[in-house]
Amino acid sequence: MNALEIKNVNKHYKKFSLEEVSFCVERGTVTGLIGENGAGKSTLIKAILGLTEYDGEILANGKPTKKLTYDERKKTGFVLGDRSLPESLTVCEFSSVLRKFYGKAWDRQTFARFTDKFALPEKKRIGELSTGMRAKCALAAALSHGADTLLLDEPTSGLDPVARDDILDVLYDFMQDETHTVLISSHITGDLEKLCDRIVFMHEGRVLLSEDKDDLLCRYSVVIGANETDIKNAVRIIRRTYGTDALVPADKAGENRAYAGLDDIMNFFIRGEKQ
To answer: Is the dihedral of CA 79, 117, 97, 58 positive or negative?
Structure first.
């Protein structure tokens, strides 16, 4: 069963739209959302959570999200990009508020275990925490009410490598249960290359690619200073002052080939000329 099915989702603003967004997130997998700022990643996650109106259909475990019961919604944990946490509360007070919100689903011991693991000071107000501490607090909350699906919007943005590794380690542990699922957006594509099973690439409100991560990373090579043959075989090219760089199918790349990571693929598909 798919944990999430996004079907022809549209959302229109004056300067931005989601246009016919469709893809599936298979149960037991990690799917990464990539794309430049304004691509629609955050808007889509908010639509899945029911925080913004949209046209189209979104299913969770085969059921329209608009028809989920209160208890069914508790099975989804989330971290939003703006880290919307109550700054006036201490970490301990935050736990008490969430217990009232989630009821019996709230696991105070699990939250305490994460606050201890992340070295979060329980008596300190959330507004006084560092960016990394706030991110860890939000993730601890998302993981402490029995959620089997996580929606994470830039959970490691602005964090140092050590803090990012701490969060990735927790997500690895979460995914040891094969019924668990993660949909995560991030500009730090190196984290997604480590963590994800599948990649959804969004650009200007549309899905450009929805691929198995390993297949995608094996498909292309980058050729710096491409020759005529490379340019002829290229999927995208970028003209620079020193010459032309090309994104070429891996089996057709010349001698000057280099590994094409997610950053490279994004850059070529957004800035490059189609061949």
So the answer is: positive
